[in-house]
Amino acid sequence: MQAVIQVSPTQLKAIQAQYPTNRQLPPGAVFAHKAGSLSVTGYRSGKVLFQGTGAQQAAQQWGSVAPAKSGTTTPKTKKAKGDQLPPDFASWAVLGSDEVGNGSYFGPLTIAAVYVSQANLDFVRGLGVADSKTLTDQQIDRMAIQMIDRLPHHIVNIMPAKYNEVHEKMNIEKMKAISHNFALLKVLKQIQPDKPAGILIDQFEPRDIYYRYLQKEPLVVRENVYFSTKAEQFHLAVAAASIIARHRANVAMQELSQLAGRTIPVGSHKVVDQIAADLLAKGGLDYLGQFAKLHFSNTQKAQGLLK
């Protein structure tokens, strides 16, 4: 999905401040930003192109979206995979979990579990909660702070140094499974004696593989557990978990940027390779490992840039 708006020079600067460059600039562009599945590119002409999930909503915050050219077709949306959810699931009291950061070279892997009771559904809905990939950092921070203050939740934030240590013993999918299970257990303990009507995990592995990763865990959440990709579309609890996880990851990225003395971006693009090479040159692989997930191919690319 994509959306295009035409803005004034002043508006262009404001959008650029909201979406700072973190990837290679295409010809004629003054900024190019990518966060998750949303890409925003601003051009000297005043045209701003939004592409990916949530493009229409993001563009409408800044101006009127130009109508699609005749003859264009709307891309098909991929169907969610996983369990068939009950028809009224969105109105249930649900404990949801989601993670962010597994596709980004720099920064932590962050998992959050959040319980949204039926009494809190209107509160979360009123905040404008949606998939964190469609929201700006400012929106995420505003919503997350309010939800953290009100909703039972738990965050597992695995910073790069710890991530690299654990990754030597297990793959990232097992790391995520253990972290989801741990966060869910923590929230279930918080809300006792209440129990959620359902638990929804944003699916990253099929049910059988997820539980295979947890075979050696002393306690495993199994009762009323559902799995679905695109789970944030089916209950606000998962969307809330996504936002709270993203907020914590954003804070971690700020901390890493302060430590490095420069902005550390998200993603795994070419700009990231050069920054990784700079960090590698400054302090070696152990130093880079304080900021980055070293098993990504970006590490080899950074080493190549130093040869």
Automatic annotation (TrEMBL):
<dbReference type="GO" id="GO:0005737">
    <property type="term" value="C:cytoplasm"/>
</dbReference>
<dbReference type="InterPro" id="IPR004641">
    <property type="entry name" value="RNase_HIII"/>
</dbReference>
<dbReference type="GO" id="GO:0004523">
    <property type="term" value="F:RNA-DNA hybrid ribonuclease activity"/>
</dbReference>
<feature type="domain" description="RNase H type-2">
    <location>
        <begin position="92"/>
        <end position="307"/>
    </location>
</feature>
<keyword id="KW-0540">Nuclease</keyword>
<feature type="binding site">
    <location>
        <position position="99"/>
    </location>
    <ligand>
        <name>a divalent metal cation</name>
    </ligand>
</feature>
<dbReference type="GO" id="GO:0006298">
    <property type="term" value="P:mismatch repair"/>
</dbReference>
<keyword id="KW-0460">Magnesium</keyword>
<feature type="binding site">
    <location>
        <position position="98"/>
    </location>
    <ligand>
        <name>a divalent metal cation</name>
    </ligand>
</feature>
<dbReference type="GO" id="GO:0000287">
    <property type="term" value="F:magnesium ion binding"/>
</dbReference>
<dbReference type="InterPro" id="IPR012337">
    <property type="entry name" value="RNaseH-like_sf"/>
</dbReference>
<feature type="compositionally biased region" description="Low complexity">
    <location>
        <begin position="61"/>
        <end position="75"/>
    </location>
</feature>
<keyword id="KW-0255">Endonuclease</keyword>
<dbReference type="GO" id="GO:0032299">
    <property type="term" value="C:ribonuclease H2 complex"/>
</dbReference>
<comment type="function">
    <text>Endonuclease that specifically degrades the RNA of RNA-DNA hybrids.</text>
</comment>
<dbReference type="InterPro" id="IPR012295">
    <property type="entry name" value="TBP_dom_sf"/>
</dbReference>
<dbReference type="GO" id="GO:0003723">
    <property type="term" value="F:RNA binding"/>
</dbReference>
<keyword id="KW-0963">Cytoplasm</keyword>
<dbReference type="GO" id="GO:0043137">
    <property type="term" value="P:DNA replication, removal of RNA primer"/>
</dbReference>
<keyword id="KW-0378">Hydrolase</keyword>
<dbReference type="InterPro" id="IPR036397">
    <property type="entry name" value="RNaseH_sf"/>
</dbReference>
<keyword id="KW-0479">Metal-binding</keyword>
<dbReference type="Pfam" id="PF01351">
    <property type="entry name" value="RNase_HII"/>
</dbReference>
<comment type="similarity">
    <text>Belongs to the RNase HII family. RnhC subfamily.</text>
</comment>
<feature type="region of interest" description="Disordered">
    <location>
        <begin position="61"/>
        <end position="83"/>
    </location>
</feature>
<feature type="binding site">
    <location>
        <position position="202"/>
    </location>
    <ligand>
        <name>a divalent metal cation</name>
    </ligand>
</feature>
<dbReference type="InterPro" id="IPR024568">
    <property type="entry name" value="RNase_HIII_N"/>
</dbReference>
<dbReference type="Pfam" id="PF11858">
    <property type="entry name" value="DUF3378"/>
</dbReference>
<protein>
    <recommendedName>
        <fullName>Ribonuclease HIII</fullName>
        <ecNumber>3.1.26.4</ecNumber>
    </recommendedName>
</protein>
<dbReference type="InterPro" id="IPR024567">
    <property type="entry name" value="RNase_HII/HIII_dom"/>
</dbReference>
<dbReference type="InterPro" id="IPR001352">
    <property type="entry name" value="RNase_HII/HIII"/>
</dbReference>
